[in-house]
Backbone:
């Protein structure tokens, strides 16, 4: 290629391993900084594949050696050089794909990281080995991410669970959705303007919303294996939102080979996530049997199993528990994923057996899950 700008872009894409074919001498100072920042991370992968880093670049520019960067300085460079979306993407690569655990071992470095779901997933996996200072920082990041997810999710959940319009009760809450045009016209017929042939409405009427009086129980049974971490985060937030609704009792159970009842902390998603212990095996049968003991009114109970369905315990016990719950008219759903992208990663053959035993099986985003629940208890 003869286009100098295109060559410089390819040089940035390929890194200093392309130095012999595309020398970096023609790059601007900003491009050199970007080259160094990207090399700090991605050269590690090349070295892992057996390629040696050539520290003597053409022109002898030794000051550009990425070894002179620290993790904290590197993050500062990323912020200064790239848009926020690129910064977050590179940060995610560093933590998830290239295992730069030094980013997670210093409170100062953690302060420089962008709090987001990807960072939270890494920190939750790391918190078991963290010291007191790092655990405090992890809790702080957890709180920020939970607040962000809650802020986006809560209005959608509340809208899905709000109830159907009640045409026999007037409301002080005025919105387009609750506007009662028939009652408005009826109450303002006395204001008919014969000349203009219009009704002048000086009193507007609005429908109320039905209030659900009979309590429902929602049991969230969450697999805390590492592959379900995104779903665990959303399940904790969903539980806290649902628990704040009237006439709904929420129970939150997490499991691996043991079963832990976190219902007492269900209002605090941060505390729930700090209590989660990732890893271990998977004993769905024992978790379902525990949840079975929590059911007192089967016809007014929803049990959501959030898991990849890779049972490490007794499959026959698991299926028997589902059949018992289904025959008692408990509403059952198995969620292979509960996240923004709802990308299912689960044992499909086992999911078919669950469905054959009386459990609905799906992969849902949180707002669609709320709509599903709202459709049942409306």
Residues:
């Amino acid at each position: 290629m003869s286009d100098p700008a295109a060559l410089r872009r390819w040089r940035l894409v390929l890194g200093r391993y392309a130095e012999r074919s595309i020398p970096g001498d023609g790059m601007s100072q900003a491009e050199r900084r970007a080259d160094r920042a990207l090399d700090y991370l991605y050269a590690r992968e090349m070295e892992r594949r057996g390629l040696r880093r050539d520290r003597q670049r053409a022109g002898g520019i030794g000051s550009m050696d990425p070894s002179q960067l620290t993790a904290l300085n590197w993050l500062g460079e990323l912020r200064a050089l790239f848009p926020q979306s690129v910064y977050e993407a590179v940060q995610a690569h560093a933590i998830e794909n290239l295992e730069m655990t030094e980013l997670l071992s210093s409170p100062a470095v953690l302060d420089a990281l962008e709090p987001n779901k990807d960072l939270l997933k890494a920190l939750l996996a790391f918190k078991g080995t963290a010291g007191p200072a790092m655990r405090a920082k992890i809790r702080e990041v957890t709180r920020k991410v939970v607040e962000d997810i809650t802020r986006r999710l809560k209005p959608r959940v509340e809208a899905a669970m709000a109830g159907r319009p009640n045409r026999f009760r007037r409301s002080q809450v005025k919105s387009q959705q609750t506007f009662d045009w028939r009652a408005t016209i009826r109450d303002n017929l006395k204001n008919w303007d014969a000349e203009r042939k219009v009704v002048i409405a000086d009193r507007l009427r609005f429908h109320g919303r039905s209030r659900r009086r009979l309590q429902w129980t929602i049991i969230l049974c969450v697999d805390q294996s590492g592959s379900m971490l995104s779903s665990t985060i959303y399940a904790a937030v969903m539980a806290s939102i649902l628990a704040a609704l009237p006439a709904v009792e929420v129970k939150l159970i997490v499991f691996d080979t043991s079963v832990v009842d976190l219902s007492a902390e269900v209002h605090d998603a941060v505390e729930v996530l700090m209590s989660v212990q990732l890893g271990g095996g998977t004993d769905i049968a024992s978790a379902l049997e525990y949840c079975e003991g929590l059911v007192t009114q089967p016809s007014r109970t929803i049990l959501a199993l959030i898991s990849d369905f890779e049972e490490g315990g007794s499959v026959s016990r698991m299926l028997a528990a589902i059949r018992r719950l289904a025959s008692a008219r408990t509403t059952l759903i198995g969620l292979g994923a509960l996240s923004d992208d709802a990308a299912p990663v689960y044992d499909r053959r086992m999911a078919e057996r669950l469905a054959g035993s009386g459990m609905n099986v799906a992969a849902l985003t949180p707002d669609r899950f709320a709509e599903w629940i709202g459709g049942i208890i409306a």
